[in-house]
Design goal:
alpha/beta; Spore Coat Polysaccharide Biosynthesis Protein SpsA, Chain A; 7-stranded mixed sheet; two-stranded parallel ribbon; about 10% strand; membrane; Nucleotide-diphossugar_trans; transmembrane; transferase
Length: about 475
């Protein structure tokens, strides 16, 4: 029995070596291709910096209270957000004192806790409109936004005064005082505007919640800056983004001709991203607005992102499902090279999940083969020179990416968070792998006829409330 096991062992090792080779070829090829894609963005960003086209403008003091130049509607959908919606409304009303502001908050009759918290946050401020959806929740975020859009249209008809722009926010957002006036001003010149999103660090979750800080610091300080400069589509993040009123009306007409009830696609999980792309594809002008206030703070939407692994996976699965899988179906592919490149970048979620999964499976195989090699087992097939080149490029690309992640995170959050950003890369990879699998399963269920539901993120605290506690 023992001799038979010794005979079989080399065969198992040879088979594992074959698996190792295939995994290595698959992972290294896509790593190199992805590295070339990212390096192109890096090179463009460096060129923009050197030529002065990526400078972050600093606002003067008093920019926060500047008149909006027209009425602005801010839409906030809310389902089971009683823990944060009251603080969000109260903080927004205090941060944005302009009389032209109207805050539309969408609630549901079967969610009395959120409705009560929203009423408490609004107080007696006449600038707040609480809208109760006729349908029981949860529907979808887009459906709730369409109900708010209908309320905006009804108010315009009653008052005879049209809004100049429409801004989107979520219940967990902590708005910047200068953001509203800055977006309102920008929307007098363009059709769509997006400001940065800044995930706030959470001491109780430095790894799971922290990896959002790293990713947004890189995306909203570099990638979107490049997209804005080269005239590519700016994807809407769903928060801290706004549309010129006329543009949103045109998008609503197009959607209604397709059988929709408003500008937001109720059957889409990432209706905000889709709208940002549609503005570009219909000939509209977009802008990514990166500013700092008089104190040097980034004018951005701050929020707490999921602090537990399960909720982080659920949230990113929804993004991958909506942007990559539904986006492929709903938006198709453009014949413009620039637009196609950006669509490929936006939809790489499932492929990234597969490549990272292969890389970690390769690591598991190596943990078996490495001890065998130390004990005298020799590989039957040496690594080819081309494979060695791919492996070397992949390793150097990883170091390059880690350097960028450290630098951009450290610039926004400090050196400690910059160092953690490198250590958090495995956490981000695990979330990406599991989110990709969950998104694929959800997409397959929709192909079988299952309805899309609002698989929303749970929020337990609002940054403004935590600031008050700290003080």
């Amino acid at each position: 029995m023992g001799s038979e096991g010794i005979t079989i062992l080399p065969q198992v090792l040879d088979w594992l070596q074959l698996v190792e080779y295939e995994l290595l070829l698959f992972a290294s090829f896509w790593f190199v291709l992805g590295a070339l894609d990212e390096f192109a963005i890096d090179a463009l960003f460096v060129w923009l910096k050197l030529t002065g086209r990526a400078q972050v403008r600093r606002l003067p003091r008093g920019a926060e209270t500047r008149p909006l130049g027209g009425r602005v509607a801010v839409l906030v959908p809310a389902w089971r957000e009683d823990a944060v919606i009251g603080e969000m409304i109260a903080h927004s009303l205090k941060a944005w004192p302009q009389r032209e502001l109207r805050l539309y908050v969408g609630c549901y009759a079967n969610d009395p806790a959120t409705l009560a918290a929203a009423m408490a946050g609004a107080g007696e401020d006449p600038r707040v409109r609480l809208i109760v959806n006729e349908r029981a929740g949860p529907t979808t975020k887009a459906d709730c936004l369409n109900r708010l859009y209908a309320a905006v249209c009804a108010d315009e008809a009653r008052s005879g005064q049209a809004f100049a722009s429409v801004i989107l926010h979520d219940a967990e957002d902590m708005v910047h005082p200068a953001a509203l006036a800055a977006m309102a001003q920008a929307l007098t010149e363009v059709d769509f505007v997006q400001i940065p999103v800044r995930p706030e660090p959470q001491p109780k979750s430095p790894w799971v919640a922290g990896h959002y800080s790293d990713e947004f610091a890189e995306s909203h300080a570099k990638a979107l800056v490049v997209r804005d400069a080269i005239g590519a589509a700016i994807p809407a993040a769903g928060v801290g983004c706004g549309f010129a009123r006329a543009t949103l009306s045109q998008l609503a007409l197009v959607r209604m001709e397709e059988g929709g009830s408003g500008p937001f696609a109720s059957e889409c999980l990432t209706e905000d991203y889709e709208l940002g792309v549609l503005v570009y594809r219909t000939g509209g002008r977009s802008r990514f607005l990166r500013l700092r206030d008089a104190n040097g703070d980034l004018v951005a939407t701050r929020a707490y992102f999921p602090s537990e692994l399960e909720f982080a996976i659920r949230q990113k699965a929804r993004w991958i499902h909506g942007i990559a899988l539904q986006g492929w179906d709903r938006l198709g592919w453009s014949n413009k090279p620039l637009d196609m490149w950006m669509a490929l970048r936006d939809r790489h979620g499932p492929l990234t999940s597969a490549v990272l999964g292969a890389a970690y499976l390769l690591l598991a195989v190596e943990l078996v083969l490495a001890p065998a090699r130390l004990m005298g087992w020799t590989s039957s097939e040496p690594v080819e020179p081309l494979m060695r080149v791919l492996i070397s490029i992949s390793f150097l690309a990883f170091l390059w990416r880690a350097l960028w992640r450290f630098g951009l995170t450290a610039r926004e959050y400090g050196l400690v968070e910059g160092a953690r950003a490198v250590l958090r890369i495995p956490v981000a990879n695990v979330v990406a792998i599991l989110a990709g699998l969950r998104a694929l399963r959800a997409y397959i269920r929709t192909l079988r006829g299952e309805l899309v539901q609002w698989d929303k993120t749970h929020h337990a605290a609002h940054p403004a409330a935590m600031v008050q506690v700290a003080r």
